[in-house]
Amino acid sequence: MKPATVKAIYDNGGETSDRFTVILHDTDGVSGVHEALSLSMWPDMPNGVSLFTEAIEGGHLGTEIEWVELPTHIAEHILNRLFHIN
After folding, report:
1. CA torsion angle for 59, 23, 41, 86 (degrees, to 10)?
2. Alpha-carbon distance 58 to 71, whole Å?
3. The pTM is what?
4. Which residue would you say has higher pLDDT here, 58 or 1?
5. How far apart are CA 33 and CA 80, in angstroms?
């Protein structure tokens, strides 16, 4: 189940190394800039991407997808990063 802290998820289909962008909450509530988690397809690998950043929502991030469309290992990784599980 999608955590309440996740506002939206974007998938750019692998066009860049940071394939998935998980939009969290507004940083200031005004500018539209959100805290985000940027992930590659294999974020736990030595050359993987898994970093907190800031992003502005929109199609430039890829296609918006639902939580259930994420690969299982990506959903688990997001939960681990957000809630320090494991």
Report:
1. -170
2. 21
3. 0.91
4. 58
5. 23
